[in-house]
Amino acid sequence: MEPQHVKANIQVIAASVIYGFSGIFFMYVKNMSAGAVVFYQLLFGLLALAGYLAVTGKLSGIRLRGKRKTLMLLGALNAGAMVSYYMAVSFTNVSISVLLLYTAPFYVLLLAPIFLKEKHNKKSLLALILSLAGVVIVIGPENLVSGSGIEPEYLAGVLMGLFSGLFYACVTITSRYLRNEYSGLEQLFISTFVTLVLLLPFVKQASVTALVENLPVLLFLGVTITSVGSILYFTGLLHVKAQNASILSLLEPVSTIFFAYLLLKDPISAETLLGCVLILSSSLLASLEEESKTENEPVFREKLPAGPELAECWEK
Length: 316
Known about the structure:
14 helices; mainly alpha; single chain
C-alpha cells in the first residue's frame, strides 16, 4: 500500500474514533438540554470549520444552488438525529444508544425501495434480519413481550435511540438525492448552518452560568469532533475506497462502547455484545451492498458532523 493510502486510512480511523467520543463527553455536560448542547457543539464546530475552509481557500466555493428545500430538510434531519441520540444517551447509556443509532442501515434498506427505487436481494434481507435481531437483544426480549419491569425513562431512551437511527437513515437518503447538486463539503457546511437556525429556541434553555461551566466540553465537542473529525474524514476519503471506509467506520461504535466502559463504567453485558455483533454485521453487509452497486464508479462517502456518524453522501 502506498504511503498516501496508508495516511488516508489512518485519517479515517482517527475520525471514526473521534466521533465515538461524542456520546461519552456529552455525559460530562451538566444542566443543559440535549438541544442546547447540539446547538453550541455545532456553533463552535462550524466556526472552526469555516476558519479551516478560509485558510485553505475553499470557503468561497460553498454556495446555494438547486434543490434548496431538500438541503434545508437535510439540516432538519441532522438536528433530529443529533438531539434524539443525545436524549437516548441521557435516558439509557452510551453503549446502547450508539448501537441503536447504528440501526440506520435497517431503515435505509426499508426506505430505499420507496425513495431510491433500489430493490432488495438476499444480502440486504439478511442485513435487515440481523439488525432487527440485534435491536431485540439489546432492548431485551422480555421487555418487548411484557413491558413490565422496564423504567419509563429507559423506554424513552430506547425510543429516542431508534429515532436517531431513523433520522440518520433519512439523512443518508436525502444526501444521496443531493449528491449531483452539492458536494459533500457543501452539504456538510450548509446543512449545519440550517441546523443551527432550527435549534435557536434551545439557546434560551441554557443559562449563562451553565454555558460557562460546560464551555470546555462544548468546545471539545464542537472543535474536535465536529470540525477536526470531519476534516480528517474528508481528507482521508479522497484516497480510501467506499467499502474500506464503511468497514473502518465500524470502529466508531466499537470504540464508543470500549471507552464508555473505561471512562463511564458503562456495563457491557453478554446481550449488549451479541446485539453489537448483529447490528454491526448488518451495517457491514449494507456497506458491502453499496460497494457492489458502485464498484465501477468513483464514489465519495461523507460524514455529517454529529458525533456519531449521521450520514453517507455518495457523489460522482
